[in-house]
Amino acid sequence: MIEDKRVFVYDTTLRDGAQAEGISFTLHDKIKICTLLDEFGVDYIEAGNPTSNPKDIEFFNTFKSSKLKNAKLVAFGSTRKPMGKVKNDSGVNALINSGAPVAAIFGKSWDMHVTEILRTTLDENLNMIMDTIAYLKAANLEVVFDAEHFFDGYKRNPEYAVKTIVTAEKAGADWIVLCDTNGGTLPLEIADIVEKAKEAVNTPLGIHCHNDSGVAEANTVLGVQKGAKMFQGTFNGYGERCGNANITTLVPTLELKTDFKLKCSKNLTDISSVSRYVSEIANMAHNQKAPYVGNSAFAHKGGMHIDAVLKDPESFEHISPELVGNNRRILMSEVSGKSTVVKKIQRIAPWVTKDSKEAQGIIDKIKQLEYEGYQFEGADSSFELMVRRMLNMNQKFFDVKDFRVHCENKWDEENSAYAIIKVEVDGREELAAAEGDGPVNAMDGALRKALKVFYPQLNDIRLTDYKVRVLDTAEATASKVRVHIETASKNKVWGTVGVSTNIIEASWEALVDSIEYFLYEEKSKKGES
Amino acid sequence: MIEDKRVFVYDTTLRDGAQAEGISFTLHDKIKICTLLDEFGVDYIEAGNPTSNPKDIEFFNTFKSSKLKNAKLVAFGSTRKPMGKVKNDSGVNALINSGAPVAAIFGKSWDMHVTEILRTTLDENLNMIMDTIAYLKAANLEVVFDAEHFFDGYKRNPEYAVKTIVTAEKAGADWIVLCDTNGGTLPLEIADIVEKAKEAVNTPLGIHCHNDSGVAEANTVLGVQKGAKMFQGTFNGYGERCGNANITTLVPTLELKTDFKLKCSKNLTDISSVSRYVSEIANMAHNQKAPYVGNSAFAHKGGMHIDAVLKDPESFEHISPELVGNNRRILMSEVSGKSTVVKKIQRIAPWVTKDSKEAQGIIDKIKQLEYEGYQFEGADSSFELMVRRMLNMNQKFFDVKDFRVHCENKWDEENSAYAIIKVEVDGREELAAAEGDGPVNAMDGALRKALKVFYPQLNDIRLTDYKVRVLDTAEATASKVRVHIETASKNKVWGTVGVSTNIIEASWEALVDSIEYFLYEEKSKKGES
C-alpha cells in the first residue's frame, strides 16, 4: 500500500528522451546520466529498450542495477507479438535477461491501433497483455504496464480501453500507466479520464504525458491530483516531437505547490545544476526560459518589475530561486532605470551611492558600450569585470604580450589554422602555440595552454556555448559582430561578451573575460582577495 | 454582447514579449510584426508603453492605427499615480495622446502590492482604478483593465481582489483581464478563481498567464473554458522570465480541440510561417519543440512510431500538420529501420523498391556518412541531394573552379579575412572576392556574389542559422566538426550539413548544398525539370 501523499518519479530521459530530435546518447553518456539521476533521487530509471536497440543492449550488459542507491532500473519493451507464444518471444525474454528488476511494457489501449497498426484482433491484444505480464511476474519482475494511447483510446472506445487495463490488473501488473502518447489531450479531459480509470482498477496508476498541445506538465499535475501515484517524465522535457512532461518543472511544482511527497525533494536545490548537466551531456542548449531551472526563470528586465523585486522578491517571483538552486538576475536593458544599475553596482561595490561620481561614470560607460553594440544580458560576468575595472578593483591575472592567428584555405590543399600567444604572469613569460578547427578554436587552445602553466585550475573549465550575432547597424559596410561565450566549471555557468567588426577580436575579448572572471572568483573563494 | 463561443485574441508580443531576455525590437521590427499580426487576424495588438519607453513613443508617433485591417491597436500603461490627479497624470494622458483607440491599464489586485510596492492605502488604490478608467472612458477609448496579480491577490485576500475588479466594472471598463502575473498558479486554482470572478462582475473577462510553472497554456485554455472571452499571449511565448502564454499553441488548440471561435482561425495554416518569421525578426532561434509550429512537432524518430505513422498518421499525430502549415518529417537515426529509409528515398524517387540495388547502395552510403559524423536530422536537404547524387538525378548548377580563404590577425594590427572564389556555369567563368567578418562570412559573400551573376533568385535567400558542433570522436587529436546551416527563402526554411576536421571545409560543404537545393527547388516549381 502506497502512503497517501507519496508520488513516485519515473524518469525516462534515457529511453523516451533519447527519441528527441538531435539526441544520441553514447554508452558513456547513459552511464553518466543514470548515476546523476540516481543521486538526485528519482524512483525509477527507464534506461532503454534491450529488445531492439544495440546500444541499449550494451548498456544493460555493462551497467548493473546494483550500482544504484536510490532508483530501480527499468528495461522497456512491449507485449509479445500477435499470435506468438510469450515464452518464445525474444523481445519479452530480453527484458528478463537485461538483469533489470523492473520491466515496463507498453500495450495497446486504442482499438484503432490494435486493428490498423498491429493488425490483429481486439481479443488477441487482451491475450497479449495478459500473457506478457503474467510471464514477467512469474520471472519475479516488478511490472509496469504502459497503456499506450489510453486517453485517445478512451475517447473513441471507452469500454475497450478500460478492458485493457482491467486485463493488466488481472495479469498482476504492479503499475498501470495511463499514456497520452500523442500529447493531444486537454487538461479537463485528462482529469475526467483519470478519474474513470481509477474507478475501474485498484492497481496504482501512473501518468505519462507528451507536450504536443503544450500542456504536458499541467496534465501530469492534474493526473496526480486525480489519483495517479507515479508520473513519468524526462529531464528538460526531452522526447519525441514536442517532448515529454518535464521533470525539472514537475518536481518543484509538486514539492512547492502541493502537499504530495517525492523522495527526490530533499535534493530540490540540486535540480538546476542537474538539469544543466544533463543538457550538457545531451549536447543540447539549455532552455533559458525553462520554468524554475532556466537561466531566465528569475531574470527581471522591466524597470517597474525590478524596482518591485528589490523591495520584495515575492512581488514578481512565484517562488524563491534558492529553493531550486537557481539565481535571481537583474538584466541590463534600455527599460531598466538608473536605480537598477546602481543596485547591480552595489552588489560588487556596496559603497557606491546613487548620486556618486563613480555611479555616473559607470552609467555613462554602459550607455557608450550599448551604443557600440554590447549587450550585458547573459553576460553578467563581463558587466562585473567592467565595473571592477572602472572602480580600479580589478586584478590583472595575466598580460597578453602578443597574439597571432593565421588560417589559410585553398582549393584542393591542406587547410591550416593556428595561433601563437605570449602571456606574462608575475614577470614570467610563456609562449604557446596551438592548431585548431578554425581560428577561434586555435586561439582558445593557445591561450589556455599558455595560462595553465600558471593557473592549473583552468583545467576545470570549458567553453559550453559560443554564439555569434551580426549587429544590425546603420552602416551596412562595417557590420559589427557580437560574440557571446558561455563557460562552465563544475558548479557554475557564466557568460561573457565581446564586440568588434572582426569576429576574431570579438571572440578574443569574450574569451579573456571568461578566464579572468573565473580566476577572480576562484581567488575570492579562497579568501585571498 | 459577445457571441456565445467567440473568443478574442489579444497579442502582447510587442509589449510583454519585448520584456524577454535577449529581445530588443527596433522601430522597424515593431512595424513589421504589427503588420504581420494584423494580417494573421489577431483582435488586439498591444504595441507598447507610450508613457515611459522612448522607442514605444516613437512607434505610436510613426505607426497609425488606421493602417490596421483586422486588429485594434492598444497602448499600455497603468492607473494614475497614488494621491495624484488623473487629469494631470502624464502617463495616463500619454495613452490618450498615443492615438491608439484602446488603452490597457494595469492596476493592483493584490493587497501586498498596494501597501508594499505602491506604498499607498487599499482605498486609494481603488480610487486610482476608478479615476483612471473613468477618465479614459470619457476620452472615448475602449478600456482594458489588467487586474495585475489577480490570482495571487485572490489567494491571500479574496475580498479585496474582487473589490478591485468590481471597481473597474463600475468605472466602465470594457474588459477585465485576470492576470497570473507571476505565473505561479496551478490549473485547478485558475479554474476555480475564474469562476469566482465571473460571479462577481458582468464585464467580459480576459485571461493573462505566465509560464513560470510551465502551465501558461493550460491555464489559459481553462480560463477560456470557465468563461473568459479574451486571452492575452505572445507569439512564440516570448515574455519576461519563462515567458507568456504562447499564441502559436493556443490558437490551434482552441480552434482544433474546442468549439470556441477565433477570428484568426481562417489563417490557421499560416501560423507556422508567422511564428518563424516573428522569431527571425526577434533574432531568436525558433523553438524546435514548440507545439504545432516547431520543426520537430511532427518529426518521427522511433522505428515503431515511424512504421505506424506511415500506416496511419493519426496513430502518432494528434492533428494533421497541414492544418497548421507544418510538415511531417521522418528522421534518420540509428533507431530507424530500413523501411523508413526506403520510404524517404521513395519520396524523391518513387520507383526505388525496398530490395533494389539502389536502395542498398544508399543505405550503405548513409551508414558510412553517419560513421564519419554526418547527421541528417535537421538536414533533410543534404539527405535529398545525397540521394539524388547517388541515383544520378542531380543537376549541376555550377562548378567551383577555385576557392581561397585567408585570414590573419596580429596583436595591435588591422585584421583581415577575405575569400576569392571562381565558379563556372554553362562554360562561363566568374571570379568574385569578398571580405567578411571572419572566413566563413567572407566565403559566403564571395560564393553568392559569383553565383548571382547567373542566378539572381539567390537574392531571395539568406542564412538564418549557423551552428558548429565538435564531434566526440575516439581520436581526440583529430576531432571533427559538424556544421549545420539553416537557410530561408520567403516561404521555406531548409537545413544542410557538412563534416570535416576543418571548420571552413565543413561550412563550405553545407553552404554549397544549401544553394544547390534552393536552385533545384526553384527549377522544379517552374516545371522545367
What's the helix and strand layout?
Two copies of one chain form a homodimer.
Chain A: E1 8-11, H1 27-40, E2 44-48, H2 54-62, E3 72-78, H3 90-97, E4 102-108, H4 111-118, H5 122-138, E5 142-148, H6 150-156, H7 158-171, E6 175-180, H8 187-200, E7 205-209, H9 216-225, E8 230-233, H10 247-257, H11 271-282, E9 299-300, H12 303-311, E10 329-330, H13 338-348, H14 357-372, H15 380-390, E11 399-410, E12 416-425, E13 428-435, H16 439-452, E14 462-470, E15 481-488, E16 493-500, H17 503-525
Parallel strand pairs in A: 1-2, 1-8, 2-3, 3-4, 4-5, 5-6, 6-7, 7-8, 9-10
Antiparallel strand pairs in A: 11-12, 12-13, 14-15, 15-16
Q: How many distinct domains of chain A?
A: 4
Q: Main β-sheet of chain A: number of strands, strand sense, barrel status? A: 8 strands, parallel, barrel
| Secondary-structure content class of chain A | alpha/beta
The CATH level-2 architecture of the largest domain in chain A is identified as Alpha-Beta Barrel
Of all protein chain pairs, which has the greatest interface, and how many residues does each chain bring to it?
Answer: A-B, 107 and 107 residues
Overall number of strands of chain A: 16
Oligomer: homodimer
CATH superfamily of the largest domain in chain A: Aldolase class I
Instruction: Please give the count of helices of chain A.
Output: 17
CATH topology of the largest domain in chain A: TIM Barrel
Note poorly predicted spans of chain A: 472-478
Mean pLDDT of chain A: 89
The strand line-up of the biggest sheet of chain A is: 1-2-3-4-5-6-7-8
Share of helical residues of chain A: 25-40%
Distance N to C terminus of chain A: 57 Å
CATH class of the largest domain in chain A: Alpha Beta
Strand content of chain A: 15-25%
The radius of gyration over CA of chain A amounts to 28 Å
